[in-house]
Amino acid sequence: MNMSLDDLANSEAFGGQNGRREAVTFLPEPEPRERFRTIWSVDDHVVEPPDAFVDRFPAKFNDAAPRIVETDDGGEAWFWNGELLPNVGFNAVAGRPSSEYGFEPTRFDEMRKGAWDVNARVTDMDINGVQRSLCFPSFLPGFVGQRLTTWPSDPELGMAAMRAYNDWHFDAWCGAHPDRFIPNQITWLLDPEIAAAEIRRNAARGFRALTFSEAPEKLGLPSLHTGYWDPMFAACEETETVICLHVGSSGTSPMTAPDAPPETVAVLFFAYGMYAAVDWLYSKVPVRFPNIKICLSEGGIGWVAGLMDRLEHCFQYQLGYLPTWRDVELTPSEVLRRNFWFCAIDDASGFLTRDVIGVENICVESDYPHADSTWPDTQPRLQAQLNAAGVSAAAAELICWRNAAELFRLR
C-alpha cells in the first residue's frame, strides 16, 4: 500500500491540520563541527526563495509566474496556476526542536535561513563540514518539477516554468558558489523527446544531474517498462547526466495497514529505494543503456546487500522459466553494481556490508534541512559509523566524496 505525500503532509500525526504554530523555536546557533573527512552530500533540498521566479519568465507570462502571497492566517503561500500552496517549508525544520517537526513551516521567517538563502546555506554547510551539495527541489515544484511542468493546461507556460526553475537553480543557487554545489535539473515530463533536448542543452551549460521519478506511473505518467522514456535515457547516457531518484519522487510513500500507526510510514520511507532499484533493474533501462548512471537518494544502504543476495537467488532458479533476463550477458546483481549508486544517511550497519555493495557504489548525504537530516553533526556521526565498521581511510575517502566526484564528473 502507498500513501500520497500530500496526504502525509496533511496528516495530523506529521504536523498537518494543526494550523499555524503560535510560536516557533530556534535552537541555539551550533558551533562548527570538527572536520574528520571531506564530505560531499548527494541529497539535500532547497526551499525555493520568494524571488526565485522573478524576471525569469517570458514577458507574456510574467503575471502567471509563481509568486508568494500572504494568507489570511498570517502565513505565506505560493500562488501558482490558480492554486494556493501554503506549505512553503515542506519539512524544512533544521535548527528547530524535534517537538516542532512537521511538514510546515508556513513562512520563510519560520525556517532557518539556510533552507532558502544560498549564502546562509553555505554557512550551514561549513558548520556541518559539507564541502559540496546536490539539492533537490521542494514543495512548489515537487521533487521532479511535476507541479511546474504538468499542472498548466498551456504547455508553453509549463515549459516557461521549467526553464525558469532551471535558470534560477543554475545561475542564482549553484552559480553563487559554483565550487559548493552540483547542478541538478528538472525536465519536461510530457514529451521524452523534448526532455532529451533539454537535457542536452542543460548538459552543455554545466548541469550534472537530473531529478526524475522513482516510479513515474504513480504520477500518472508512462511506466519505465513501456519504453516511452528511452529518448530521455539516451540523452542522459550520451551526456553522462546522472539520473537522481529521490525517495518520494513518485509522490507516494510506502505504508502498511490503513489503521497502522504513523511510525510505520516514517520507518518504511526508505523502502522505495529498494522498490525503485528492482523496478529500474527489471525495466532493463540499464541494459539498453549500459553507460547510464542512476543514483538513489534517501533510501539508505542497509538493504542493498540483502537485495543482491535475493537477486542472485532468484536469478539461479528463474532463468529457466522467466524470460526477462535470458538475453543479458551480466546477472541482475552485476548490472546493479555497474549502473547504480546508493546514498548512506545514518547507516551504521550498512557500512558493514560495504564490500558486498561495492565501496565504489556508496555515497553519503545529509538531507538538510529536513527532519531526517544529520545536520549539524554529519561529520562526527559519519566518522563514528565508519570507524565502528572498520572502514579504511582509503575506502572512507571514496565513500565520503571521491565516488561522488567521479559520478558527477567534478574535481
Strand order of the largest sheet: 8-9-10-12-13-14
Tell me the radius of gyration: 21 Å
**CATH structural architecture:** Alpha-Beta Barrel
Strand content: 5-15%
- CATH topology assignment: TIM Barrel
Descriptive account of the structure:
With 411 residues, this protein is an alpha/beta fold. It has one domain (39-50, 113-407): TIM Barrel (Alpha-Beta Barrel). The chain is built from 14 helices and 14 strands. A six-stranded parallel β-sheet has the order 8-9-10-12-13-14. It has a three-stranded parallel β-sheet with strand order 2-6-7. A three-stranded antiparallel β-sheet has the order 3-4-5, with no helix packed on it. α5 links the parallel β8 and β9 (209-212). α5 (192-205) runs parallel beside α6 (230-239). The longest helix is centred in the middle third of the chain and has 20 residues, at 155-174. The radius of gyration is 21 Å and the shape is globular. The relative contact order is 0.14.
